[in-house]
Amino acid sequence: MIAIKIIYAIAKCFEIYMYMILVRCLLTWFPGINWENPILKALRSSVDLYLDLFRKFIPPIGFIDISPIVAMLVLGFLSKGIIYGAVYLMGMLGMIG
Q1: Angle formed at CA 33 by CA 27 and CA 36, multiple of 5 degrees
Q2: Percentage helix, strand, coil, to 5, in the chain?
Q3: What is the tens place of the pLDDT at every residue in 53-70?
Q4: Ranges of each domain in the chain
Q5: Do the beta carbons of residue 85 and residue 11 sit within 8 Å?
Q6: What is the model's pTM?
Q7: Residue 80 DSSP one-character state
């Protein structure tokens, strides 16, 4: 039973991070946002750390930055792989029936 809770927690962490990326992207549409707010500053620094990996290789198309879309797709595939890998591993260890 604990194995299922661990897998669920891993899945929720990926889901929350995806929402953080989405919120970060939506907030860029509002030019008056104060990014010095501690909550927004924390959001920006934690999400931009991941997004900058993709911004190095994917240039903006005009005024549109598509790197968050690619980053979310990669994160989605990565999360599914990790979750399925955890299910397989815990199944092999006999932790999941």
Answers
A1: 110
A2: 70, 0, 25
A3: 999 999 999 888 999 999
A4: 2-92
A5: no
A6: 0.88
A7: H
